[in-house]
Amino acid sequence: MRFPFWQSLRQGSLSKTPPASSSAANAKLEELRRRFDLRLREDYAILSQHRGCQLAPSAELKSIVHRLAGSAGMLGFHEISDVAGRLDDAFETPGSDTATLFLALLDLLERTLNVPRTGTTST
After folding, report:
1. DSSP label at residue 79
2. Quick one: 40 exposed, middle or buried, by C-beta within 10 A (0-12, 13-18, 19+)?
3. Is the pLDDT of residue 8 over 90?
4. What global pTM score does this model have?
């Protein structure tokens, strides 16, 4: 295997290294989640501006979707990662139904961020 780090994971050699302080690791993870939450809100604000847009996706939109596909999954937001990944792939496939995937991604982001859904009325 060309990737010694991943090979060491399979062989369990990393388990022989002393564990990092759990409180320090938790603090780092919380900081990552906090930063991800802020970035997700910024990304949602940009993406939501494209709701209903019939034009080809901009480079910025493609970049945000691609980044969400990777970063969301690493932080445990697997459903967002999955839909963003499928949308990212669809952008590169002519004739794909990107509009449906895009709306599904916006819906997931709205639910995750507890953002009122655009176009809904409260009673």
Report:
1. H
2. buried
3. no
4. 0.73
Q: In one letter, which amino acid is 95?
A: G
Dist. CA 70–CA 75, nearest whole Å: 9
Which tens digits make up the pLDDT trace of 63-106? 999 999 999 998 889 999 999 999 999 999 988 889 999 999 99
- Nearest by Cα to 88 from 107, 100, 102: 102
Collapsing DSSP to helix, strand or coil, 99 comes out as helix
Residue 123: strand, helix, or coil: coil
Q: What is the DSSP string of 18-77?
A: PPPPHHHHHHHHHHHHHHHHHHHHHHHHHHHTTTT--SPPPHHHHHHHHHHHHHHHHTT-
DSSP 117: P
